Amino acid sequence: MNIKIEPCNYEQLEQLQVISYETFDETFRHQNSPENMKAYLEKAFTLQQLEKEWVNDSSRFFFLYHDDELAGYLKVNVDEAQSEAMGEDALEIERIYIRNKHQKRGLGKMLFNKAIEVALDLGKQKIWLGVWEKNENALAFYQKLRFVQQGQHSFYMGDEEQIDLIMVKTRI
């Protein structure tokens, strides 16, 4: 298995948009209305929105390639780019997205390890993320990695309010 994790560069924003749409849709379409999915995808993954996120010095994107095919990506945030105020010692994993056909191969764990590497390089003491309370696969994955729930926040899928559980790992 040939795996590479590389920073996503500016010229790859269209690829980032494609994989964002695809992976989010694959994961959540069966649990949400088509209208709410469409509204969210058209807001969260426009080229303008992704460019705004990419140019923020407090956010980083990494592409994961499996046998030279783009299989997934990681987005991490620190400082003011975090979606919740978790402190200067925290790194947020905002997205670990893996295409369905590449799941169950340990690739999510590789992206998680990359997030740990970034956190340690930046001197961070904890990693946190928000995960939808109904995303059982992701919850099991993060619990296996010893994340602990420390709160929750609202996430809007179109006009529907959903609950994301705030999961924190303090021993990295």
Q: How is the topology of this model organized?
A:
Elements lengths: L2 E5 L5 H16 L5 H11 L2 H9 L3 E8 L2 E10 L11 E9 L8 H15 L4 E7 L3 H9 L3 E10 L2 E10 L3
Helix pairs in contact: 1-3
Number of domains: 1
Question: What is the CA-atom radius of gyration, in angstroms?
Answer: 15 Å
**Gap from first CA to last CA:** 26 Å
Q: Assign the structural class, choosing from mainly alpha, mainly beta, alpha/beta, alpha+beta, or little secondary structure.
A: alpha+beta
CATH superfamily: Gcn5-related N-acetyltransferase (GNAT)
The strands making up the biggest β-sheet line up spatially as 1-2-3-4-5-7-6
Largest sheet: 7 strands, mixed
In CATH, what is the class?
Answer: Alpha Beta
Shape: globular
**How many runs of DSSP E, i.e. beta strands?**
7
Strand content bin: 25-35%
| Tally of helical segments | 5
Write up this protein.
- The chain has 172 residues and is an alpha+beta fold.
- The chain has one domain (3-169): Aminopeptidase (3-Layer(aba) Sandwich), CATH 3.40.630.30.
- Helices cover 35% and strands 34% of the residues.
- The chain is built from 5 helices and 7 strands.
- α1 (13-28) packs across α3.
- The longest helix has 16 residues, at 13-28.
- It starts with a strand and ends with a strand.
In short:
The chain has 172 residues and is α+β, with helices and mostly antiparallel strands. It has five helices and seven strands.
Top keywords for this entry?
172 residues; alpha+beta; Aminopeptidase; seven-stranded mixed β-sheet; 5 helices; 7 strands; 35% helix
